[in-house]
Design a protein that fits this description.
By secondary structure, this protein is of the alpha/beta class. The chain has helices at residues 41-48, 85-90, 108-115, 122-135, 137-141, 152-164, 182-197, 209-215, 233-237, 240-245; strands at residues 3-12, 15-25, 30-34, 57-58, 66-75, 78-79, 93-96, 170-174, 201-205, 218-223, 226-231.
Length: 249
């Protein structure tokens, strides 16, 4: 078991965002996390990857409000509760954020090198870069281009490539298809499958339920901060209430 989350609760002021949630991911799996907007999917990823502080305090990236976390997160057999985000990244648990978020004024190559800032072995860093260019040849064609001028699909490739520069053992990808045209969505999903084929374990948060059910080994359905169902895509699609009420199918 690569990642185990046990009885995780995340509260923002008096509102409970994640409610006593437990889940696990085995090494080599592609696991999806789906559910309606506002279910807590992005908050869960941020809690797992250290972007929510494990004590009462300010949520990183916000200016007001207290967030409290309780529960247990174990990665590669080690508790990572209260471990700073950069140390979690160094362990190989990598967060690829929603809406890409490149360093918009920097070039493609500088974005990629920024993703590998914790890799101290120069030869390994250059090997990572070579692997990214093999996966995303379009990025190699645009190494000197300012990232903010890329198309949405190219920015998503850059976000994935930047995450791969950090030697991920588990790559958490948040809503990669948001705002993309249908053909580009298909290409991004194909690339995520290739990332899994590279031996990298993937936790994928996504709204395109049919696409991820076809890709994933297992799926969790999240609603109101709780896991309400788990199973293969075929198993979950057989539940008519689940399809109509929680998946919008």
């Amino acid at each position: 078991m690569l990642l185990e989350v046990s009885n995780l609760t995340v509260s923002f002021d008096r509102a409970m965002i994640i409610n006593d949630l437990s889940m696990h991911i085995n090494e080599g799996e592609l696991v999806s996390l789906v559910g309606p907007n506002g279910a807590g999917k992005s908050t869960l990823l941020r809690a797992i990857t250290g972007l929510v502080i494990w004590e009462k305090g300010i949520h990183r990236g916000t200016t007001a409000g207290d967030i409290t976390l309780e529960g247990r997160v174990v990665f590669q057999g080690e508790s990572i509760a209260q471990v700073p985000a950069h140390e979690i990244t160094a362990k190989g648990l990598i967060h690829c954020p929603e809406r890409r978020r490149p360093f918009r004024e920097m070039t493609v190559i500088d974005n990629l090198y920024a993703g590998g800032y914790l890799v101290k072995d120069k030869a390994q860093l250059e090997q990572n870069l070579e692997n990214v260019f093999k996966l995303f040849p379009r990025l190699q064609e645009r190494v000197k281009q300012i990232s903010g001028t890329l198309s949405g699909g190219e920015q998503q490739m850059l976000a994935l490539g930047r995450a791969l520069m950090s030697n991920p053992r588990l790559l958490c990808i948040d809503e990669p298809s948001t705002g993309l045209a249908p053909m580009m969505k298909e290409e991004v999903f194909n690339k995520i499958n290739e990332i899994r084929d590279m031996g990298i374990t993937v936790l994928l948060v996504e709204q395109e339920v049919s696409a991820v059910f076809a890709m994933a080994d297992r799926n969790y359905v999240l609603s109101s901060g709780k896991i309400i169902a788990e199973g293969s895509g075929d198993e979950l699609m057989q539940d008519e209430v689940l399809r109509k009420t929680y998946l919008g199918l």
